[in-house]
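Aim 2 progress update. The chain analyzed this quarter is reproduced below.
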Amino acid sequence: MKYRNYILTTIGFALLAFNVNAKPLVTMDEDFDINKVIFIEEDQDWELGFDTSKYLPENFDPYSGGFSVKAINFVDECDEIELGFETTGYLPEGFDPYTK
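Predicted structure tokens:
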């Protein structure tokens, strides 16, 4: 009986010690507002060693913000590409590029 009381007392003190050392729950007192975030923008002047205006189109404005999705060129996967020669002579027998 003494042994059991000793174990229970030790466990009780251990739990009490954990509660005493526990840190308080951190809660935000106010809601987060993105407008209160301070953004520090560093002014970067990069010297490339040549005049970049020679290589840009006339009236180029990088900050104009006008962007068209139609300006993006892409390759349609359904288009068959003609290489101008037969590729089967250069591939092993039974070659299938779609199998792993």
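The two ends are 69 Å apart (CA to CA). The mean pLDDT is 79. These observations will guide the mutagenesis experiments scheduled for the next reporting period.
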